[in-house]
Amino acid sequence: MKYFSNTTAIILFISILALSCVSPNNNEQDQNKTIKKDPLPSWNDVASKNNIIAYVNEVTNPENKTFIPIKDRIATFDNDGNLWAEQPAYFQLFFAIDRVKEMAADHPEWKVEQPFKAVLENDMEELKKHGEHGLVQLVMATHAGKTIEEFDTDVKDWIATAKHPTKNVGYDKLVYQPMLELLQYLRVNNFKTYIVSGGGVDFMRAFVSPIYGIPSEQILGSRIKTKFEYNNGNPKIVHLPELDYNNDKEGKPLNIQKIIGKKPVFSSGNSDGDLQMMQYAASNEYKSFMLYVHHTDSIREWAYDRESHIGRLDKGLDQALNDGWTVIDMEKDWKVIYPFELN
């Protein structure tokens, strides 16, 4: 048997190694590494998805004139109807309703006083007649007098057991899977995501941070007044029965400026209550992206817009269509609505 010399063996080894470096298999592996996984897998291949991806790719590329520095990549999201469902009523209203029923024994006057009477009689039609003022009354009655810690516990206990009246699942299960993917996609690309909602800030902070991946200090919402008590060396903050700030409509950009201190470059909402926030984002000197969720799916979710008492989308839809903002058609654009549909 003839053996190679040591020199020949080394040359042969080097030659084989060189050939392997340019082999088709290795080329395929390198190409596969460059193929990005679909960042929005619960979306169909539609304009809304493609617009989002194109925007993110453009403004995060330092070679583009429209490049946005990381420090200025601020994204704001409404919550009710935009990140989770809001029908047939806001989730915080259901919480307040359950609290009224729990507290009713100590308040016999509620049997004849509206809107409490409507709650105790399960008369949602009557309750709707009292509108936002009625909601504020219920919130004041059920939230006031509680320390921040006590209220946080009440909300956590409620969310752990309460069921949505028509979907029959926990309220925390009715978040939108496609929007969870969008939040994550933006964060991967160094956007800082905020919730800017008309809902109560302490209600949301009690449980949504792990759901959305958004820390409590990046959650902006409506708030009732509070007071500080030293409490003999055990300081506490207590809710008072008075509205402090309504984080809706023009209140949103005002609160964004006050707390965040920068205009968003990406803003998402679903109603006219979000319009001023979207307009504020559209005025950014950087290229901005405005995204509306249009509730068009009457089978998997709810279909509503211009005439709805909750989440009305009228003027906002007109401006979105006129100005070329991106509008999600929930029925056509999303493969699934809720995370539990993936199971």
Give an overview of the whole structure.
With 343 residues, the protein is α/β, with parallel strands linked by helices. The protein folds into two domains: 47-87 and 172-342, Rossmann fold (3-Layer(aba) Sandwich), CATH 3.40.50.1000; 91-152, no CATH class. It is built from 15 helices and eight strands. Helix 4 crosses helix 7 (131-143). It is globular, with a radius of gyration of 26 Å. The model is unreliable at 1-35 (pLDDT under 50).
Helix count from the secondary structure assignment: 15
CATH topology of the largest domain: Rossmann fold
Helix content: 40-55%
Structural class, from helix and strand content?
A: alpha/beta
Oligomer: single chain
In the CATH scheme, the class of the largest domain would be Alpha Beta
Would you identify the regions where 5 or more consecutive residues have pLDDT less than 50?
Answer: 1-35
The SSE string, one letter per element, is HHHEHHHHHHEHHEEHEHEEHEH
The largest sheet is: 8 strands, mixed
- Shape from CA axes? globular
